[in-house]
Design brief:
The chain is an alpha/beta fold and 425 residues long. Strands 1, 2, 3, 4, 5, 6, 7, 8, 9 and 10 form a 10-stranded mixed beta sheet that branches.
Length: 425
């Protein structure tokens, strides 16, 4: 799945970027095109394909119904309690592009009398590659939950000493024992977002909140040329699945993956669908009227409205019962960093309400703190009332469906299905 921040430039404009698992497009998925997919079809159909571990690996696949408690290693222990912050230090942060408010950085520097250096990446595969080289000793990293197993097994993440992070109690209680990191041994939450449907109310007269199947909203011939889906193999194949009533967004069933592929190919023929990640700008401009979209992008969309056009014409739908795609990022301390105390204190700092609100004012993506409610975001001027649906509720995290790490064979089938759709447009 492409991260919502993949391809961002510092100025906020989208740039071409390799998707989170883009290397498979050039590797396994490309191999499928050349050599056929029979072996992988057999692998995905086998009983072991849907099991708790990645094929050929002891790393478990964390699921809400299969939570994972990661091991602690004798050669990678938490730091001791009661240590003072490092002096004359430069905290090294490795983060997505345009994902951290510089004001938060400056305020942290002032509070702890240190310097902060932020280095950015555009894709998780890029970040993982750089971390493995150990060319730079980063202190803080913002990983996605699907790579935690690899990072932990490789001793790249340092286990947390909770005594330095009292602000965890400001977060939703879910995150003191998340399914992907039981007992929050290696991570704290950063941002959280949903994937839904954005539309221009002045051009589209259907209201997804009154439709029998809102996931099918893009499949309307009368909006030909004005419909877009996300350029993301996990998100868009998931859209095709949900349109047909399938909500296992980590399916390894070849028949279901093919069914979604056909639904998206039908969509292409029906509306000449666009594929892009410019939901935040193309809906405000009116270039696209119905867009498969990320909540954080649409929360920021009013800033891209043409002069004289009210942002109230933008709508964002996510199922009120929370049964839709939900994603979240984490913050972690890196084992090779030279400033582990400051790194812990930075995680704690970003879990403090005033700092989180400052951060949201820049990147648009909500942080899962108990005090950050939809009403609070509106009151703070961080969200317009008509887009309050972009705010993420705790119930969404609990009831939602997540696109999580897949066994390699199944992941390649998802890639293959997406290639068949995207290359045909």
């Amino acid at each position: 799945m492409r991260h919502p921040r993949e391809g961002w430039s510092p100025e906020g404009s989208r740039q071409p970027g390799l998707s989170r698992r883009g290397f498979l497009r050039q590797g396994a998925a490309a191999g499928l095109l050349a050599g056929g997919i029979g072996t992988l079809l057999e692998a995905c159909s086998s009983p072991s394909a849907g099991g708790p571990s990645s094929s050929g690996s002891a790393i478990p696949l964390a699921r809400p119904n299969h939570p994972v408690t990661w091991p602690l290693y004798a050669d990678n222990k938490p730091i001791k309690s009661g240590l003072q912050p490092e002096k004359n230090a430069t905290l090294q942060i490795y983060n997505w592009v345009a994902y951290l408010n510089q004001q938060c950085v400056k305020d942290f520097e002032k509070k702890y009398n240190c310097k902060v250096q932020v280095t950015t990446f555009n894709t998780m595969s890029e970040a993982m590659s750089k971390l493995r080289t150990e060319q730079v000793k980063f202190d803080v990293f913002i990983p996605t939950i699907d790579v935690l197993g690899t990072l932990i097994e490789s001793r790249i993440l340092r286990p947390l000493n909770h005594s330095y992070i009292p602000n965890i109690h400001q977060a939703w209680p879910d995150f003191t024992n998340p399914f992907y990191d039981q007992k929050w041994q290696y991570t704290v939450p950063y941002t959280i977002y949903t994937t839904g449907i954005a539309w221009r109310k002045d051009y589209v007269h259907e209201n997804p909140y009154t439709m029998a199947n809102p996931w099918a909203m893009p499949w309307q011939a009368k909006y030909k040329g004005k419909v877009a889906i996300l350029d993301d193999y996990r998100e868009s194949i998931s859209l095709g699945l949900m349109k047909d009533g399938i909500f296992n967004l980590n399916t390894t069933d070849p028949a279901q993956i093919t069914q979604s592929q056909k639904a998206l190919q039908d969509l292409s023929q029906l509306v000449n669908v666009h594929i892009d990640n410019n939901d935040y700008s193309n809906v405000p401009s009116g270039q696209i009227w119905i867009h498969h979209a990320w909540s954080g992008d649409m929360a920021a969309a009013p800033a891209y409205m043409p002069k004289g056009v009210s942002p109230d014409v933008i709508g964002y739908w996510f199922p009120p019962d929370g049964k839709g795609p939900v994603g979240n990022d984490t913050m972690a301390v890196l084992a090779g960093g030279e400033n582990p105390v400051l790194a812990h204190l930075f995680l704690d700092y970003m879990l403090d309400l005033p700092n989180a609100l400052t951060n949201i004012s820049y990147n648009g993506y909500m942080q899962p703190l108990t005090a950050i409610t939809p009403q609070r975001l509106v009151k703070e001027g961080l969200l317009i009332p008509s887009l309050i649906s972009t705010a993420v509720l705790p119930s969404y995290f609990r009831r939602g469906v997540m696109e999580l790490e897949l066994p390699p064979a199944a992941d390649a089938l998802w890639q293959q299905a997406w290639l068949s759709v995207s290359k045909g447009i």
